[in-house]
UniProtKB/TrEMBL annotation:
Signal peptide boundaries: none
Glycoprotein in keyword set: yes
Protein name: Ectonucleotide pyrophosphatase/phosphodiesterase family member 2
GO biological process, one term: phosphatidylcholine catabolic process
Region (Disordered): 416-438
Ranges where the SMB domain occurs: 1-44
Subcellular location: Secreted
InterPro entries per UniProt: Alkaline_phosphatase_core_sf, DNA/RNA_non-sp_Endonuclease_sf, ENPP1-3/EXOG-like_nuc-like, His-Me_finger_sf, Phosphodiest/P_Trfase, Somatomedin_B-like_dom_sf, Somatomedin_B_dom
Cellular component aspect of the GO annotation: extracellular space
A GO term, aspect molecular function: zinc ion binding
Length: 696
């Protein structure tokens, strides 16, 4: 390569060979001009302040300047609680520095002070989470832009490091100029939000910006090269490559963090600036023996394009290539005894991944340190879509629309500026008319309900039902519709007049009950409280669909409560294969012919965090487990369905674990309206996802 970086430092243009490059990725692609370090990084003076350099005359050719007290290290001091920002005159607000570390696996923090002394101090003295969950796919570009916008990749459009857009008829790649085209980038990143509201962003030299984002490509590069758990040199063919241990790379990163904190201390800004240290994604080990070759599955590999990796994607080779995604998924499903991957159509991916609504379509760390973050505080695991709102709060900005839940991370801040409130209910339940006689045949199959003159009027009143079965209040409906709240002795439901099935069903189990996998009674009764337009045999009009009870009649112990549980208003349409899984659920709906067939069912299970306390006795926190299950005509997602359900149903449930907030976004409902918990804690519960990692 030839040329110089003089006057070209960090240019956006990527020079083509034989010219050398001066952009910020030239180091990655080993194409920098020979004077890049001198001209752009200004490495001549080094990056360490020794006692001999303290108080030196400022040299503009040095990137690192040293103050009079530079021999005093930030690391050597004790944790200091900063009650309020201490900023120099002229600062309107505490600046925010965001450091992003590529591929920083959460478990690296276990290396402690010996490898990461500066990062360990930030974690110990500030606010941290044991892990932060990245978005799917766990790639750099999708997650960096999610951190910046608070949007899912399906919402902001950067769904992978490389992708094809069928509307643009263009490819987005890390190498090439197309990635600089604004048409790919949806949403509003934090630096644009800041600039639109008059806050300086993105500059480095004085005057100090109020938001500055820095990204390091380490330890991702060495993690890919050596493996995330590697700490040994490795052998490649016949040459032993002593590339240094991964720990050495982590030490270098930590040293850079230490240099930043020392620099802030020397400028008397260490009690003023807020620092946020995050990873874009984690990293897992891969093994050669787990490599899969699609040709061995009978695919014509010359007719497809494969984007490989832990979240590989398959597409047609060209726009004219014959391509049937359903056929490809069928050919790749459960074909090998030790298959190391599971194929999905994107609409069948677990809903928690939020990766279906775009045509392009390992945990990491969070540390917060500074006057606006809480002192020595640990918060639960959360998803990185929540950080955009936190950054806006730190900078006094109004967030742009995003997928985060504003206020759910208030616990990380010393004095949160935003106070969340419950959304207003849009539709209240319509009053229940007096029960009437059933004077017409609903084609129900119970012996005492096939006549035209059944006179059961269902006049019982349950004054304590709401307290027992709606301990957190009635779920609010946040869209225009019509429904009635129906309460029985053992359960309550919100029955929709628009789709003739419940929007939700709630009940409380006070003790362990042994029940059959499928209800022993298939008797369906008419409900005299409603003038229904559908009959008991409506679902039989749809091939392959039957009915099931949301509240299982076998949970009831009295004749009257079993009668309630057999009402037609307690039924939903369901595929028999799904019915065998015996999930207690409510539906997410879509139209299919004359009957609404659910695309998914969900289950939200609430219990007291104290395992021996019932909900009535619970005075502390809640434990919430949530699932969103795809409603499919078969169980081909599991490869061992020929075994007893106890061997595979639980694994299937865990695969589709989700957040309560995911259910709310899909259904238009709002849960936990009446609890003794602060509302910010309720939001934290809604955005928490149980992953069962601690159950092993």
């Amino acid at each position: 390569f030839s040329g110089s970086c003089q006057g070209r430092c960090f240019e956006l243009k990527e020079a083509e060979p034989p010219s050398c490059r001066c952009d910020n990725l030239c180091k990655t692609y080993l194409s920098c001009c020979s004077d890049f370090d001198q001209q752009c990084l200004k490495t001549a003076g080094g990056f360490e302040c020794s006692q001999q350099r303290c108080g030196e005359t400022r040299n503009e050719d040095y990137a690192c300047q040293c103050s009079d007290d530079c021999d005093s290290s930030w690391l050597e001091g004790d944790c200091e609680e900063i009650q309020s920002p201490e900023c120099p005159a002229g600062f309107v607000r505490p600046p925010l520095i965001i450091l992003s570390l590529d591929g920083f696996r959460a478990s690296y923090m276990k290396k402690g002070k010996s490898v990461l002394p500066n990062i360990h101090k930030l974690s110990s003295c500030g606010t941290h989470a044991p892990r932060m969950r990245p978005m799917y796919p766990s790639k750099t570009f999708p997650n960096l832009y999610t951190l910046a916008t608070g949007l899912y990749p399906e919402s902001h459009g950067i769904v992978c490091n490389s992708m094809y857009d069928p509307m643009f008829k263009a490819h987005f790649k890390l190498r090439g100029r197309e990635k600089l085209n604004h048409r790919w980038w949806g949403g509003q990143p934090i630096w644009i939000t800041a600039e639109k509201q008059g806050v300086k962003a993105g500059t480095f030299f004085w005057p100090w910006p109020y938001v500055y984002a820095v990204h390091s490509e380490q330890p991702d590069t060495y993690g890919h090269l050596l493996g995330p758990l590697s700490n040994e040199p490795f052998e490649r063919t016949l040459t032993v490559c002593v590339l240094g241990q991964l720990d050495n790379t982590l030490k270098k990163i930590d040293n850079i963090v230490g240099q930043l904190m020392n620099g802030l201390k020397q400028m008397n800004l260490h009690r003023c600036v807020n620092v946020m240290l995050v990873g874009d994604h984690g990293m897992e080990e891969s093994h050669c023996e787990r490599t899969e070759y699609l040709g061995s599955y009978g695919l014509d590999v010359d007719a497809i394009t494969l984007i490989p990796g832990s979240s590989g994607r398959i597409g047609p080779k060209t726009a004219t290539t014959p391509y049937n995604p359903k056929e490809i998924v069928a050919n790749l499903t459960c074909k090998m005894p030790n298959q190391h991957f599971k194929p999905y159509l994107k609409q069948h991916l677990p809903k928690r991944l939020h990766y279906a609504n775009n045509g392009r379509i390992e945990d990491t760390i969070f540390l917060g340190f500074g006057p606006s973050f809480n002192f020595k505080t640990k918060v639960p695991v959360f998803e990185n879509i929540e950080l955009y709102n936190v950054m806006c709060d730190l900078l006094g900005l109004t967030p742009a629309p995003n997928n985060g839940t504003h206020g759910s991370l208030n616990d990380v801040l010393r004095n949160p500026s935003y106070t969340p409130t419950q959304p207003e209910e849009v539709t209240s339940p319509t009053p229940l008319a007096p029960p009437s006689e059933v004077t017409h045949d609903l084609s129900c199959n119970c012996d005492d309900e096939v006549s035209d003159t059944h006179t059961h009027t269902h006049t019982r009143v349950f004054s304590k039902v709401n307290v027992t079965h709606l301990p957190f209040g009635r779920p609010a409906v946040l869209f225009q519709t019509s429904y009635t709240q129906l309460c029985q002795s053992d359960y309550c439901s919100g029955f929709s007049h628009a789709i003739n099935m419940p929007l939700w069903t709630e009940f409380t189990l006070t003790a362990q009950v042994e029940v059959a996998a499928v209800s022993s009674s298939e008797c369906v009764r008419a409900d005299p409280r409603l003038d229904l337009t559908h009959t008991c045999n409506t679902y039989s009009q749809e091939p392959g669909v039957t009915h099931t009870f949301l509240y299982p009649p076998d949970f009831s112990v009295t004749a009257e409560s079993r009668y309630d549980a057999s009402l037609i208003t307690n039924t939903v349409p369901m595929y028999p294969a799904f019915k065998n899984c015996n999930a207690v659920v409510v539906c997410v709906r879509r139209a299919a012919g004359s009957v609404y067939i659910p695309t998914h069912f969900y289950s939200i299970i609430s219990s007291c965090e104290e395992l021996n306390d019932t909900l009535d006795e619970c005075e502390g926190d809640l434990r919430v487990t949530c699932f969103i299950l795809p409603h499919r005509a078969d169980n081909s997602e599991s490869c061992n369905i020929w075994e007893d359900e106890s061997r595979w149903v639980e694994d299937l449930l865990k695969l589709h674990t989700a957040r309560v907030r995911d259910v709310e976004l899909l259904t238009g409902l709002d849960f936990y309206r009446s609890t003794a918990l602060p509302y910010t804690r309720v939001l934290a519960l809604k955005t928490h996802m149980r992953t069962f990692e601690d159950d092993v």
